[in-house]
Amino acid sequence: MRILVVGGTGFIGRFLLPQLSGVGHDVGVVHRPESSATLPNGVRGVAADRQRLGEHAAMLRAFAPDVVIDLVLSSGRQAAELVEVFRGHAARVVAITSMDVYRAAALLHGLEDGPLAPVPLTEDSALRTQAQTYPPAQLERLRQLFGWLDDAYDKVAVERNVVAAPDLPATVLRLPMIYGPGDRLHRLFPLLKRMDDGRPAILLPERLAAWRGPRGYVENVAAAIALAATDARATGRTYNVAEAESVTELEWARRVADAVGWRGRFVVLPDDAIPSHLRMPGRLEQHWAADSSRIRAELGYAEPVSRDESLGRTIAWERAHPPAVDPAQFDYAAEDRALSSSREGAENAEHTN
């Protein structure tokens, strides 16, 4: 099968490309002209500007892909352009979107009102009605990390334009919070630094400690994408991709502690007893727990990398590639004051095994 991957030199792509080429597929990757990324043996590079895909239509069509995987779709405009380029020139497109398409995301971020959305989220759960996914300040921070994000970022519009396209069947994959080597958001780092610094206790706000959200290890997510791209049964289908269980933030922290060998305690306190740098805004009673049973049942998906190995590889990478540290986010003096001033801290201490 000939597969063209748009945006395949980043976090997910570095694991996806070898999974595709390693089993004999003819793989090309669309990347920025200035990219210096090293591609796996046998993978062909196609230099094109993601924001101006239409200008490179002839070159992209000449690759004659059976399937196009777009890892960096961020707006309805980009999706419409993708469809225009490949309609009649590819058998199928695999559009990578996000769990943030669900109404639950808008409720969490305070962008929509109303009753809580039922969880776990399935592929048939209600979608957002607001185009804006994140508060403006948060979106701007994300754009500084991910240059492919469009000003009009909206994965709902991406899905709408891709699914409605005539003459170009689509598969939609809704991805979770992804961790692993190369994670530019460094999701494990705040916990890991405190553990490696020998903190005897780690504080968690009460609402955040109980919050459940979907996660996935990057190599496992890449495996799901490769499977959906190469299995014709995925045509016309939408799939959630996430670990089978959406655990609480407290349980996630415990798993990291076990992997690190940290023997301190987690202390859960009311939000108003927590230092401001540890508080999480939003309507945290709205969980994002997701059901990924459809892709498992229909395509036989199973994670190739175990949970323990996933965490081990991520921790090793985080230690070798720490981000710049903002001292205000690691105000241990304030955390110590919160611990010592609250009797609840001692009474509600959660110990790791």
Please explain how this structure is put together.
This is NAD-dependent epimerase/dehydratase. Residues 334-353 have a biased composition (Basic and acidic residues). The strands form 3 sheets. Strands 3-2-1-4-5-6-10 form a 7-stranded parallel beta sheet, sandwiched between helices. Strands 8-11-12 form a 3-stranded mixed beta sheet. Strands 7-9 form a two-stranded parallel ribbon. The model has no long low-confidence stretch (mean pLDDT 92). It contains 14 helices and 12 strands. It is globular, with a radius of gyration of 21 Å. With 353 residues, the protein is an alpha/beta fold. The chain has a single domain (2-182, 214-245, 288-324), classed as NAD(P)-binding Rossmann-like Domain (Rossmann fold), CATH 3.40.50.720. Helices cover 35% and strands 15% of the residues.
Would you kindly provide a brief summary of this structure?
The protein has helices at residues 13-21, 57-62, 76-86, 103-108, 136-145, 155-163, 189-196, 206-210, 218-230, 249-260, 293-299, 307-320, 332-341, 343-347; strands at 2-6, 26-31, 44-47, 67-70, 92-98, 170-175, 177-179, 201-205, 215-217, 238-240, 265-269, 349-351. It has 353 residues and is an alpha/beta fold.
CATH class: Alpha Beta
The backbone outline, from C-alpha atoms, is: globular
Give the fraction of residues assigned to helices. 25-40%
State the CATH superfamily name: NAD(P)-binding Rossmann-like Domain
CATH-derived topology: Rossmann fold
Taken in chain order, the helices and strands follow as: EHEEHEHEHHHEEHEHEHEHEHHHHE
Q: Spans with pLDDT under 50 lasting ≥5 residues?
A: none
Rg from C-alpha positions? 21 Å
CATH architecture: 3-Layer(aba) Sandwich
Strand tally is: 12
- Overall structural domain count: 1
Largest sheet: 7 strands, parallel
Average of the residue pLDDT scores: 92
Domain NAD-dependent epimerase/dehydratase: 3-78, 155-242
Organism: Gemmatirosa kalamazoonensis
Region (Disordered): 326-353
Keywords: Plasmid
